[in-house]
Amino acid sequence: QVQLVESGGGLVQPGGSLRLSCTASGSIFSLNVMGWYRQAPGKERELVAARSTVGSLNYQDSVKGRFTISRDNAKNTVYLQMNSLKPEDTAVYYCNVRELAGRRMEYWGEGTLVTVSS
User: Fold this and answer.
1) DSSP 100
2) What is the pLDDT of residue 9?
3) Which residue, 25, 32, 46, is CA-closest to 109?
4) Largest interatomic CA distance in the chain
5) Which of 8, 12, 55, 98 places its Cα 20 to 30 Å from the Cα of 71?
6) Are 33 and 50 in contact (CB under 8 A)?
7) Phi, psi of 89 (to 5 degrees)
8) What are the tens digits of pLDDT across the range 48-101?
9) CA–CA separation, 40 and 1 (whole Å)
10) Do the Cβ atoms of 31 and 54 come closer than 8 Å?
């Protein structure tokens, strides 16, 4: 049973920073993509950033230059450093793990709320 545990959300003022963490427990195929999605009220869930085991990166255009995704493969942990936060970054952020081989399973965390407001 794979579980994703997220942490690091909260309230921050515009221009501030937050760091999200997500650790996966259980057995995950070694070739995978770990990433972050977000869903704002009334909007669809969207990809924020993702990074594969072998280092390929993908960022949503609106966060390029402000957010950085990194991962520690030994700990099955992915991080999202968010700088220069804007009110439009307010959303529930979800951790996602997608296996690229093996059973090709996909897993989701329960989400952590990020609120950017003065």
Assistant:
1) S
2) 95
3) 25
4) 46
5) 12
6) yes
7) -85, -5
8) 999 999 989 999 999 999 999 999 999 999 999 999 999 999 999 999 999 999
9) 28
10) yes
